[in-house]
TrEMBL record:
Residues 16-173 form the GmrSD restriction endonucleases N-terminal domain. It comes from Pseudomonas duriflava. Pfam families: DUF7834 (PF25202), GmrSD_N (PF03235). InterPro entries: DUF7834 (IPR057156), GmrSD_N (IPR004919). The lineage of its organism: Bacteria, Pseudomonadati, Pseudomonadota, Gammaproteobacteria, Pseudomonadales. Coiled coil: none annotated. Transmembrane segments: none annotated. This is Uncharacterized protein DUF262. Residues 191-437 form the DUF7834 domain.
Length: 498
């Protein structure tokens, strides 16, 4: 069952925002106040011009504010917009000699010094009337769920890669086709084909966040991490890191004798034993060089591997096409096989009730697993991986972005490395079983109330999923490991093959 977490949006004056509910506050994960005195003075100048207008009924909008309503602490924590709220509070203090009511903001020493600098600068300026400050309009977005609040915060402040990064990659690799040796007509046809592939990929349904552009999601959340998170190294997926991996470090046409404008070198992996190169024909078909076998039109079947070298031009677009299709096959494609059907049931009934960062880990690991072993023993892999992620949920009420990196970095071995370096699914499953055994005490000791908070909702989802094994009266997850084994023996019989 998918839990709904309402998002409330309204337009309020600054005065109404302060009076609309519990006091505004800052949580520990927020950065400090960083506005310079010059920026404060610019705001003062803008407001002075606004106040001088003859029509006093015109509204002045000052942007959006994102709030997390925490009923337990009787506070509304500012997720995004604290710089503007602080600045308006300073202007209010300049006008009245006191801070506005309805806020419980506290700052670090460094922020306090920055605020003093701002106040000193404001003392040299004429004060803005309190009425003007109070009537400024803000778009207020308020959420109640702490997981959603952290997701919003990371997205707004330090998460991912600007959309123009993937646009730059598209432009670079289209230019690489144009600059390659070959017939001009062929290059133009390939450019058109690859541009259409990319645009079709961007229109694919989002894997995690609704409305999200598929291309940045594919590259930042999955492909970049699958390639760069190795051993204890789990670097941050910055704009520059993305361009380095998928543009600067891609191989030029002259790096391999098998490479040309329409052909990409291939490497030995699970789905390629004999072919040496892959040619993209004018009509969009794939031909394997070395045995002249035509590959199906489904790009999910392209004989590539996640961590292989990426060749510029056609090679980049085929690589992106392959993993976009594989991710869609896993999550969205209609009429899936029995193994994928079972996987989706596990995801929707257990993971959809968990935090987005944990779902990221789940999908990332599963994509790497499918790249290595297709759907062989996929449901068992999904259940054993979910057992590990569920332990994180039971241990932590607040799951932050760095949780994903820590999951790989702090383990005995990086699970992504284990999958890529394994020859048989049993090697991966045995690794997960060992980690599963180490977490038995945590499950045995949990005492979370069913349905209460994010942890309680997750616990309820687990009890519902394993209701045949646990029984309707069960209220503890201490036997989850036994339920998992029993589920594998019954519900998933016959799902282990292809």
């Amino acid at each position: 069952m998918i839990q709904e977490h309402p998002v409330r949006v309204s337009t309020l004056t600054f005065a109404d925002l302060l009076k609309a509910g519990q006091p505004l506050a800052l949580d520990s994960y927020q950065r400090g106040f960083v506005w310079s005195p010059e920026k404060l003075l610019q705001l003062t100048s803008d407001l002075a011009e606004f106040a001088a207008q003859p029509d006093k009924h015109l509204p002045y909008y000052i942007g959006a504010v994102l709030l997390h309503h925490d009923a337990c602490q009787s506070r509304r924590f500012i997720i995004d917009g604290q710089q503007r709220i602080t600045a308006l509070s300073l202007l209010y203090h300049r006008a009245t000699g006191r801070l506005p009511t309805g806020q419980a903001l506290s700052y670090s020493g460094q922020s306090a010094r920055q605020i003093r600098r701002g106040m000193q600068a404001l003392q040299q300026q004429a004060a803005i009337a309190r009425e003007v400050i109070e009537q400024l309009r803000l778009t207020v977005i308020e959420v109640d769920n702490s997981d959603l609040a952290f997701t919003f915060f990371d997205t707004q402040n330090n998460r991912g890669v600007p959309l123009q990064a993937t646009d730059l990659l598209k432009a670079y690799h289209l230019r690489a086709i144009d600059h390659a040796n070959g017939v001009g007509e062929l290059r133009a046809t390939l450019q058109k084909n690859c541009a259409e592939r990319w645009e079709a990929m961007q229109r694919l349904p989002a894997t995690l966040s609704p409305g999200q552009d598929f291309a940045p999601c594919l590259f930042t959340r999955f492909l970049w991490r699958a390639r760069r998170w190795r051993g204890t190294q789990t670097p941050t997926d910055t704009h520059e890191a993305l361009l380095s991996e998928f543009q600067i470090d891609t191989w030029h046409h002259g790096a391999d004798s098998r490479s040309s404008v329409d052909s990409v070198p291939l490497y030995a992996n699970r789905v390629n034993r004999l072919a040496t190169a892959l040619t993209l024909t004018r009509d969009g078909e794939y031909v394997l060089q070395g045995n002249q076998v035509r590959v199906s039109h489904d790009p999910a079947n392209l004989p590539m591997a996640l961590r292989q070298p990426i060749h510029e031009g056609v090679g980049f677009f085929l690589y992106a096409d392959k993993y976009a299709a594989l991710l869609q096959r896993l999550m969205n494609t209609p009429r899936p096989c029995a193994q994928v059907t079972a996987f989706r049931a596990i995801y929707h009934e257990l993971l959809r009730n968990n935090q987005e960062y944990l779902r990221e880990i789940f999908i990332l690991c599963t994509l790497v697993y499918m790249d290595q072993f297709d759907v062989e023993q996929l449901p068992e892999f999904a259940l054993r991986l979910e057992f590990l992620l569920g332990a994180i949920r039971l241990k932590q009420q607040l799951v932050r972005q760095e949780t994903a990196a820590n999951f790989f970095r702090h383990a005995e071995l990086n699970l992504l490395d284990v999958i890529v370096q394994s020859y048989h699914p049993k090697q991966v499953l045995d690794f997960l079983k060992r980690r599963q055994q180490a977490l038995l005490p945590l499950y045995a000791e949990e005492s979370i109330n069913v349905g209460k908070g994010v942890q309680g909702r997750y616990k309820r989802a687990v009890l519902t999923f394993y209701r045949e094994q646990a029984g309707s009266a069960c209220s503890s997850l201490s036997a989850k490991s036994q339920w998992l084994e029993a589920y594998l023996k019954t519900s998933l019989e016959g799902h282990d093959g292809h």
